[in-house]
Amino acid sequence: MLFHVRMDVRLPHDLDPEVRAGIVAREKEYSQQLQRAGKWPHIWRIVGEYSNFSIFDVESNDELHTLLSGLPLFSYMDIHVTPLAKHPSDIN
Amino acid sequence: MLFHVRMDVRLPHDLDPEVRAGIVAREKEYSQQLQRAGKWPHIWRIVGEYSNFSIFDVESNDELHTLLSGLPLFSYMDIHVTPLAKHPSDIN
Amino acid sequence: MLFHVRMDVRLPHDLDPEVRAGIVAREKEYSQQLQRAGKWPHIWRIVGEYSNFSIFDVESNDELHTLLSGLPLFSYMDIHVTPLAKHPSDIN
Amino acid sequence: MLFHVRMDVRLPHDLDPEVRAGIVAREKEYSQQLQRAGKWPHIWRIVGEYSNFSIFDVESNDELHTLLSGLPLFSYMDIHVTPLAKHPSDIN
Amino acid sequence: MLFHVRMDVRLPHDLDPEVRAGIVAREKEYSQQLQRAGKWPHIWRIVGEYSNFSIFDVESNDELHTLLSGLPLFSYMDIHVTPLAKHPSDIN
Amino acid sequence: MLFHVRMDVRLPHDLDPEVRAGIVAREKEYSQQLQRAGKWPHIWRIVGEYSNFSIFDVESNDELHTLLSGLPLFSYMDIHVTPLAKHPSDIN
Amino acid sequence: MLFHVRMDVRLPHDLDPEVRAGIVAREKEYSQQLQRAGKWPHIWRIVGEYSNFSIFDVESNDELHTLLSGLPLFSYMDIHVTPLAKHPSDIN
Amino acid sequence: MLFHVRMDVRLPHDLDPEVRAGIVAREKEYSQQLQRAGKWPHIWRIVGEYSNFSIFDVESNDELHTLLSGLPLFSYMDIHVTPLAKHPSDIN
Amino acid sequence: MLFHVRMDVRLPHDLDPEVRAGIVAREKEYSQQLQRAGKWPHIWRIVGEYSNFSIFDVESNDELHTLLSGLPLFSYMDIHVTPLAKHPSDIN
Amino acid sequence: MLFHVRMDVRLPHDLDPEVRAGIVAREKEYSQQLQRAGKWPHIWRIVGEYSNFSIFDVESNDELHTLLSGLPLFSYMDIHVTPLAKHPSDIN
Q1: pLDDT at A90
Q2: Cα–Cα distance between A53 and A32 in angstroms, integer?
Q3: Any alpha helices (H) in chain C, and if so which ranges?
Q4: Which parts of chain C register pLDDT below 50?
Q5: ipTM here
Q6: Contact G44 I89 (CB under 8 A)
Q7: How many Å apart are CA F81 and CA F6, to the nearest integer?
Q8: How far apart are the first and last CA of chain H?
Q9: Signal peptide location in the record (chains A, B, C, D, E, F, G, H, I, J) (predicted)?
Q10: Domains and CATH numbers, chain A
Q11: What is the Cα–Cα distance from A48 to J7, expressed in whole angstroms?
């Protein structure tokens, strides 16, 4: 079941640089683990912004919330989720 | 080069049903032709809305505008385009 | 799996009164059928508006879109869907 | 008498972690007490957000404001209340 | 129990003038009947707009929706309702 | 001459609790003085928010600005003023 | 007493050209009469829009609403009124 | 003196196709005349929309309004103008 | 050449009171100097807000930006500029 | 390939003045280097704001994101990118 997710990162300017680097590194690892598991099939950078559009493939709403709220950057992001359905023109 | 596109269809209620059916059929054919050509790799229905999120893969901004403005539903849609870049966490 | 749905009805003023009455009657029947089937556990009128907040309980995003796009009033409504998860404070 | 409530939590990043944990724990206890008393029949997490949609069942507007302004997280939340009425299609 | 209501009238330009005059006359009569009954204690014109701010005093959300949806202008208005509580500084 | 005023209080979380209590106490006294003088005939709490809708009755725009900018909470509030006129349906 | 007014004209495309010309001519005459009477001291065109910013100088809110609702274009405009006070830096 | 202008075309769906074609042709001619005169140095299509971003180079606000309100599509467009100044980093 | 300017002052609550008083005093002096020079013919306080509507009369966009960016409060304000043209109904 | 970019600078008031001056100086140098390389053909100041409208000329979305995210002010700006296509009325 697919969901469209927009994430906008809002890191405070006075965050300690080492703390920041640590969070960002853990975020990358966490994201890549979910990508390899097939849960997060697409992630694209929005040009010019510290933001991404992503597609998640999960079993349920609860699973999606668990994955998103586990993001190391979760408390520093605005996240907006849109549920997706198969489009009648889709050839796949 | 990838672009994220949101399309919201606004067909007038008093459109002749046959005219409407004709436009919608041509739209589907046009969309599937671009999908088969690899120009329109993803199209998803937004649940509950007469709208879609799509990903286009084109050579240039001009090519994208030519494809979008050629949509049979073009004059009946609100379209918003967002350019995408590779995300540093993307494993592909 | 639960979804929160807001529906705002926008019937054109020049719609034929009989056509209008027919659509509204079919909408009620369709809604009550889904309520009895357990798919649409809650529907509340928003005070002062021709709108409702509803909760749907479905198996998948695709099922939800099928149910919503089958509403007799579908082409006369703005619909916005929000996926819900279990709240950690929920006692049920 | 039912009310629809949306709550968005905005905890400052520099809040002392112990203070934060204390507030969140008291919020949970307060919420569950109201749920058991039948005043707060539904609470759902909005997927991907530190937010909830809730339904309150109270005797009056004044009672609702007393309950909401007593929330331990009250000064850290944006709250929006919408009064609800019985929907003519509701089968209950 | 008090509610704050904003009403914005949107009469279509091509409405038959007699039909329009009839609706507006019935609206005035209906409003004054509710004012005399103590249900609609305040109504003020918003300067420069075909709009009003009103205060309603009713027993329940359901009663308020019944009164508002019975307005002869109901289908030609945008209505927004806000529930009110006693303010701690109020001397009355 | 009547004006509709919405006030939204935004007290910073790190404000000293005693300073805060002092401001809030002076605000209450100031408000009640204006209410007794007939300048501030109505004040209602917006349910669930640290906000109010008020009605002011003043001689001029300048008098209203003097009263509002003298509020002890003035620099901690978003204030929006709407001028009111007599409504043609008003029975008073 | 001064008020800032923004007016945005929305004339329907299918309005009869003679009717339109008549309304616009009466609007100009009405406006110039109020300007000569000192009630409407300033009117400026917003560059690129069928809109104006105006300053009105009236005795009361009621007088302002009477003047604005008497505009021949009143039912074809969005009007927004902002009350003005003397600025402490104003040298006049 | 430079101005940034955004134009969004909103042609009604029921406009007579010949009338439409005539307006669009005159718009093009009018635009190219101003481009050749150096008044309209840049015009770009916004990808996916019936809209443009333009730069105008004029002597005054009045000249700009005269040029824009003379556009054959003027009454079918939303136009928003932003005045521009030399940027301190500009190398030209 | 006239421009309409809205300025909203956002002074941080933790600004040193003496620093604040100094900036505000220099702002007043700067404003009155421009008023006396005929560059800033009107300034009005927006009732209930720490904001003003102003009219500037300058030779060019560049001159306007120089004047505005020289305001002692410049980095503490949101400023929005709208270019004005002569209105066809203006009697002056 | 052309892109329209709006940049709004939001420097925190408590930023160390030397740090600030250093960033702003590096930003200018970086911008002028890209201008000289033909990548950033236009930059205009928005009158009254710490903002600019720019045109970038790049090979791809990825190149544009690399250039923008390398801006010394990047983490202090809101940036919005709009892809541009050739306009059919453009004479160049």
Answers
A1: 97
A2: 15
A3: 17-36, 61-69
A4: none
A5: 0.97
A6: no
A7: 7
A8: 15
A9: none
A10: 2-83 (3.30.70.1060)
A11: 10
> Which chains share 3+ C-beta pairs under 8 angstroms with H?
B, G, I, J
Asked if the Cβ–Cβ distance from A68 to D50 is below 8 Å, we say no
Residue of H5, H62, H63, H67 to mutate, testing the I interface (most I Cβ within 10 Å of its Cβ)? H62
Q: Nearest CA to CA, how far is B62 from chain C (Å)?
A: 33
Residue C67: name the closest of C28, C30, C42 by CA: C30
H23 within 8 A of H72, measured Cβ to Cβ = yes
Residue type for position I38: G
Please report, for residues I3, I34, I83, the alpha-carbon distance to residue I59 in angstroms, rounded to integers and kept in the order given. Answer: 11, 14, 12
pLDDT by 10s per residue, chain I, length 92:
999 999 999 999 989 999 999 999 999 999 999 999 999 999 999 999 999 999 999 999 999 999 999 999 999 999 999 999 999 999 98
The Cβ-side half-sphere exposure at D85, using a 13 Å CA radius, reads 21
The mean pLDDT of A13-19, rounded to a whole number, is: 93
The CA-atom distances, in angstroms, between A24 and each of A20, A74, B89, I6, J72 are 6, 11, 10, 40, 19
User: What are the tens digits of pLDDT across the range H76-87?
Assistant: 999 999 999 999
Strand pairing report for J2-9 and J51-57: antiparallel
Show residues of chain G in contact with F66, CB under 8 Å: 85
Total number of residues shown for chain E: 92
Q: Who's near B6: CB < 8 A, 6+ residues apart?
A: B51, B52, B53, B54, B79, B80
Q: Which of B9, B31, B32, B44 to mutate to test the interface with A (most CBs of A within 10 A)?
A: B44
A41-80 pLDDT per residue, tens? 999 999 999 999 999 999 999 999 999 999 999 999 999 9
d(Cα B43, Cα B52) in Å, to the nearest integer?
A: 7
Contacts of A47 in chain J (CB under 8 A): 3, 61, 64-65, 68, 81
pLDDT in tens, E27-84: 999 999 999 999 999 999 999 999 999 999 999 999 999 999 999 999 999 999 999 9
At F50 the pLDDT is 98
Tell whether D60 is within 8 A of chain E (Cβ): yes
- The Cα of B48 is separated from the nearest Cα of chain H by a number of Å equal to 23
Chains contacting G with at least 3 CB pairs below 8 Å? E, F, H, I
Nearest CA in chain I to G6: I4
What burial class does residue C57 get, using C-beta atoms within 10 Å of its C-beta: 0-12 exposed, 13-18 middle, 19+ buried? middle
Q: Does J79 touch chain B (CB under 8 A)?
A: no
